[in-house]
Write a structure and sequence with these properties.
This protein is of the alpha/beta class and 499 residues long. It folds into three domains: 220 residues, Up-down Bundle (Growth Hormone, Chain: A), CATH 1.20.1250; 30 residues, no CATH class; 240 residues, Vaccinia Virus protein VP39 (Rossmann fold). The protein has 16 helices and eleven strands. The strands form two sheets. It has a seven-stranded mixed sheet, sandwiched between helices. Strands 1-2-3-4 form a four-stranded antiparallel sheet. α1 packs antiparallel against α2, α5 packs across α6 and α14 packs antiparallel against α16. The longest helix has 54 residues. It is elongated. The model has no long low-confidence stretch (mean pLDDT 90).
């Protein structure tokens, strides 16, 4: 009996941590992947667990029955928390954060009640030192197990909504297990069994219907028809379509519209590469959609392109889906292109190859995982991979909507010795968008373009390098790994835009 209850501690600890991780991940996906989200969720959860542990002193009788009821409440509340919060965000955006912290607090209080009750149930059969050591050992082992399985298996395979419901089912199964173990000690268990089986049924139905629910919610969240939807270990990928317009969203943030992406990618590639007639080796960091590669392949002198993108789901999607292959003109299947799925910073550390032109096309620095790729340490590594006359171009968010963020990228590049040339272009889906050319010498715009373009002309190019008053340079700190000031700039500025 004792071993069975100790195994229940393992399951309980796994479920408790899972609900905490789900709340933190969901709030990061929907509000911006920020250390603020996880810090406040974890802090609220731990505080609530303390409240629950304190309240356990007032549970004096029928400990097993109370434990079963608490397990059922945790299972239902925790199991449906992700689905409910997603629903609230989609249809009632304003109260989302209130609902988030109420749910985290409620689950935390109930989880805080569990372990003290189990310890009191077990104290009749174990000495105090054995009781504490064994309960805490299984508690920590459960936390370890879910912390490993959550990012590697659960979220990629099940998603956040189904993962929550799965752990809710586990809590209910623990309650049923306790009812069976203590069947001889409990009296009149009809209502407890009824509550347990109803909870089990409701959660099972929710688990089975989770796919339809999330499809319905996301259809409301995105204005257009969703034609592709995948959660990889690294991000949530959605492709929508309206007539002939395909749009890519990563973690709910628009990455491109097929109607005007050519403006972005021409501005990203051609002002730099067209001034390097001897460029033979090109590196693309990010850009797993192959659209920047499409533009680079227009230059016959380019002999090889190395594309380093973290997420194999992205490069696989854009090299297999017919509509997306048509959009990138099958760039990822070119014999000149080598695709590597790896973390760009680590790849730069581990390789000594030199390149004549580098395209840095990462998502905006909305979180610290991406923010490191805009840091001085990253740019210092990048500089070591440039040949003597090489240039790098960095997409640098909007100088209009995120002005300080844009100039922070410029300041950071300059801090490691780059000579920078910032510029911008109008992309209707985004507005004014910014880029920075970086090298060891002063840059001169091209007098002509030797490749076909739909947007750029030699006559219009000089205007890209002129900044009006509302986009002119402002003071900004250098983005370093130990401060990640760029992420704070970015979140603050875009929060003002979407209000």
């Amino acid at each position: 009996m004792n071993q069975a209850l100790l195994f229940s501690v393992f399951i309980i600890a796994s479920c408790g941590l899972a609900y905490e991780l789900i709340a933190g991940a969901l709030s990061s996906y929907l509000l911006g992947d920020s250390i603020t989200q996880f810090s406040t969720v974890i802090g609220t959860y731990l505080f609530a667990m303390g409240i629950g542990s304190w309240l356990s002193r007032y549970v004096e009788r029928n400990l097993v029955a109370r434990f079963v009821q608490i397990e059922l409440m945790v299972g239902v509340l925790g199991g449906f928390s992700a689905a409910a919060l997603f629903f609230i965000f989609v249809w009632f955006t304003t109260p989302f954060q209130v609902a988030l912290y109420l749910a985290v607090f409620g689950i935390g209080v109930l989880v805080g009640l569990e372990i003290p009750l189990i310890m009191r149930i077990l104290k009749r059969d174990l000495s105090f030192k054995d009781l504490v050591s064994q309960v805490l050992t299984f508690d920590y082992l459960g936390a370890l197990a879910v912390s490993i399985l959550f990012p590697l298996l659960l979220v990629p395979q099940l998603g956040l909504v189904r993962s929550g419901l799965l752990f809710g089912l586990l809590n209910v199964l623990v309650a049923l297990w306790a009812l069976w173990i203590f069947r001889e000690q409990l009296r009149n268990t009809f209502w407890l069994k009824t509550q347990a089986f109803v909870s089990l049924g409701v959660l099972a139905i929710g688990f089975a219907a989770a796919g339809q629910f999330t499809s319905l919610a996301e259809a409301h969240l995105y204005a257009d028809e969703i034609v592709y939807n995948e959660t990889s270990p690294y991000q949530h990928i959605v492709i929508t379509r309206w007539k002939d317009d395909l749009r890519l969203f990563l973690n709910n943030n628009l990455q491109f519209s097929s109607r005007d992406e050519y403006r972005y990618h021409e501005a990203l590639v051609h002002p730099g590469l067209s001034t390097l007639p001897v460029a033979r080796r090109v590196l693309v960091l990010g850009g797993g959609d192959g659209l920047a590669v499409r533009e680079i392949l227009k230059y016959p002198q380019v002999e090889s392109i190395t594309l380093v993108d973290l997420d194999p789901a992205m490069t696989q999607l854009f090299s297999t889906a017919a509509a997306l292959r048509k959009l990138n003109e099958d760039a990822l299947h070119s014999p000149k292109v080598k695709v590597i799925n790896a973390d760009a910073l680590k790849w730069l550390e581990d390789n000594a190859e030199l390149f004549d032109f580098v395209v840095v096309d990462f998502p905006d620095p909305s979180n610290f995982a991406i923010g490191k790729l805009y840091s001085a340490a990253f740019y210092r590594l990048l500089e070591k991979h440039l040949t003597a006359g090489a240039l790098a171009v960095i997409q640098s968010t909007s100088p209009l909507y995120a002005r300080q963020s844009f100039w922070c990228v410029v300041s950071t590049l300059e801090s490691v010795g780059f000579v920078t040339t910032p510029y911008h272009a109008l992309v209707p889906s985004f507005g004014e968008w910014g880029f920075v050319l970086a090298g060891r010498r002063a840059y001169r715009p091209p007098a002509s373009y030797a490749v076909a373009t739909r947007f750029l002309t030699p006559e219009a190019t000089p205007a890209l390098f002129q900044f009006p008053k509302d986009m002119a340079r402002v003071d900004a700190e250098v983005n370093r790994l130990n401060n990640q000031v760029l992420v704070r700039y970015f979140e603050s500025e875009w929060r003002q835009v979407i209000r």
